[in-house]
Design brief:
The complex is a heterodimer of chains A (46) and B (134). Chain A is mainly beta and 46 residues long. Chain A is built from no helices and two strands. Chain A has strands spanning 19-21, 37-41. Helix content of chain B is 40%, strand content 16%. By secondary structure, chain B is of the alpha+beta class. In chain B, strands 1-2 form a two-stranded parallel ribbon. A two-stranded antiparallel ribbon of chain B has the order 3-4. Classes of the chains: A mainly beta (46), B alpha+beta (134). Chains A and B meet through strand 1 and strand 2 of A and strand 1, helix 2, strand 2, helix 3 and strand 3 of B. Strand 2 (37-41) of chain A pairs parallel with strand 1 of chain B.
Chain lengths: 46, 134
Amino acid sequence: MPLGVGDSVVDASLTHTLDGYRLAPGTLADQMSERPTLLVFLRHYG
Amino acid sequence: MQVLYQARERLQDVSLLFVASSTAEESEAFFSRVWPNAQAIADPEKRLYEAFGLSRASWAQMLGPRVVLKGILSLFRGHGIGHPVGDPRVLSGFFLLDRNGRIVWERPSANSADIHVVDEIRAQLDALSSLSHE
């Protein structure tokens, strides 16, 4: 089942270390901050 | 993404975290040029897309009448079709997480051109903010 409303990304099995642009080291849970987070999934760019 | 960039002043109280199906190098090359302050996850293996149910658009979602119409309108506005970076068959989507990482709102796109949700995001942020002040 995909993650949805009510699920927590902290509890989900998303334990792999992320790579990318200007990220905090660690997993998705490690990217959380004092503010809410809007995850924006892109189709592609170009 | 252009819609979000134009609305960034209205979204200052939320951390935007982009997810792209490109490599880290491609993400850096792109974001350092168009939105240097952004944060972006490189997900070429599409683990996050998979986890959030956005891994593969159907051909109907990619080439439905609404998507084709938007593409034609975009061409008339002078926007060409560039070489896509990343997997063009993944779906776009928005997920709002509270400070504890719990998903409080989601808008997985019905099709790949459906991204005009800034007002909805703003309303959700206002609702979250009023909850945290109660």
